[in-house]
Design goal:
Layout (H helix, E strand, L loop, with lengths): L13 E5 H17 L3 E2 L9 H8 L6 E3 L2 H9 L4 E4 L8 H8 L4 E6 L2 H13 L4 E6 L14 H12 L3 E7 L11 H25 L5 E4 L2 H6 L8 E2 L9 H6 L9 E11 L4 E4 L3 H4 L15 E5 L9 E6 L4 E5 L13 E6 L2 H5 L5 E5 L2 E6 L6
Parallel strand pairs: 1-16, 2-9, 3-4, 4-5, 5-6, 6-7, 7-8, 8-9
Antiparallel strand pairs: 1-10, 10-11, 10-15, 11-14, 12-15, 13-14, 16-17
Helix pairs in contact: 1-2
Bound molecules: pyridoxal-5'-phosphate (PLP).
Length: about 375
């Protein structure tokens, strides 16, 4: 049983998760994707904990997307039966993947190279199983995935389709370049491009004789703002559970939707430099520079007053070392309002990276800590 606690009294630094905002964000995305006619296979990489995953799958079929094999194992043990490991797999880890797959209904792997397909076919044959795989497609982000315009990509899809021990589950993409958008309109354009690239490629594969059963897309900006999912069967957003300062800047959400923040303490006053020192640095926020394409001086997070949750607009989290953070201000800092030992709440630029630096989240409702969620860590 959790002892009654007020989050403002927790020892710092500590990750706070606003339960009502997680509830609202997960409900809104679940309804949005259903209304647009697709099924939701939410990504859990942002929080990596069972409680948030259960909220994400409500109203959908229960499938998840993960970014490590450790997550695949952990969520499988928690009862999630259909999991996509959405990172091209290192061939040396295929045996481990087979062991995890044997305990699930489906572990879908990604292929974007013929060598991976051959390694997957070989390991599936030796384990006497049929493995499920998506062809990873590059819809413009240029991180991973095959070129949908290339004939070689059609050939690879045909080989997957014909491989005796691989089930060609479909095609999958992630529009990470949506994060470069500056406005909701720009993000909607990337989302529409992501959709059209995938629908055209699915048609091409169907005509070539390798029809994809699933057409899977997913990024939080595009899925928070897109107006059509026609031709798309599955959506895999993840960050929206918490959102973050970056998503608020590009227009996927508002700062009031962000569910993750870090409670920190003021540990030093430096009036000669007009700075405050805090007890949290890169190991609480990461060094994600945030939406510098919108505000080059945005700093490492949005700083909120603990008393009333107000955004302290003149404050910037200007620099971070491992466990120190420096706050600067455009205006003279009223040091008497921020005595050493007082607290601030900081919304990180990138909630996935910041959350990954904590071994637990204190879940809050109003002033109270109502729960503690423990994420899986490791690879
Ligand atoms: C393959 C894949 N799918 C889905 C997602 C979820 O996207 P987001 O973090 O924008 O919600 C990611 C995130 O990196 C991803 O890499």
């Amino acid at each position: 049983m959790l002892q009654p606690m007020l989050w403002k009294e927790l020892s710092t630094p500590v990750a706070l998760v606003d339960r009502d905002r997680v509830e609202a964000n997960t409900t809104a995305m679940s309804e949005r994707v259903a209304r647009l006619g697709a099924r939701l296979r939410p990504h859990v990489k942002t929080h990596k904990c069972v409680e948030a995953a259960r909220l994400q799958v409500r109203g959908h079929f229960g499938g998840l997307t993960v970014s490590t094999l450790a997550e695949a194992r952990f969520f499988g043990e928690a009862g999630f039966r259909d999991v996509t490991y959405a990172v091209p797999i290192a061939p040396a880890r295929l045996d481990e993947a087979m062991a995890i797959a044997s305990k699930l209904d489906e572990l879908n792997l990604l292929v974007d190279h013929v060598d991976t397909l051959e390694a997957l076919e070989a390991v599936s044959l030796s384990n006497r199983v049929i493995s499920s795989a998506f062809l990873k497609v590059d819809c413009g982000y240029h991180r991973a995935g095959v070129d949908p315009e290339s004939d070689d990509s059609v050939m690879l899809a045909l080989r997957m389709h014909d491989a005796p021990h691989v089930r060609f589950r479909g095609i999958l993409t992630h529009a990470g370049h949506s994060y470069l958008g500056k406005t909701p309109e720009e993000i909607r354009e990337v989302g529409e491009q992501e959709r059209q690239v995938m629908v055209r490629f699915a048609d091409k594969l169907a005509r070539a004789g390798a029809p994809p059963a699933e057409v899977s897309i997913g990024s939080t900006p595009t899925l928070s703002l897109c107006e059509s999912l026609d031709g798309i069967s599955e959506a895999r957003p993840g960050n929206y559970v918490f959102y973050d300062r970056f998503q608020a800047a590009v227009g996927s959400c508002t700062l009031d939707d962000v569910a993750l923040s870090v409670l920190v303490s003021v540990t030093g006053h430096y009036p000669e430099r007009n700075e405050l020192l805090i007890d949290a640095g890169a190991l609480a926020f990461s060094k994600d520079e945030g939406p510098t394409h919108i505000d080059p001086d945005c700093g490492f997070g949005a700083i909120l007053s603990v008393g009333d949750g107000r955004l302290l607009e003149t404050f910037t989290l200007a620099s971070l070392s491992q466990e120190h953070g420096k706050i600067r201000s455009d205006a003279p800092i009223p040091y008497d309002q921020f005595p050493v030992g007082s607290k601030l709440r900081i919304v990180p630029n990138h909630s996935c990276l910041s959350a990954a630096l904590f071994d637990r989240y204190h879940v809050t409702r109003g002033d109270d800590v109502v729960d503690e969620w423990r994420p899986v860590r490791g690879w």
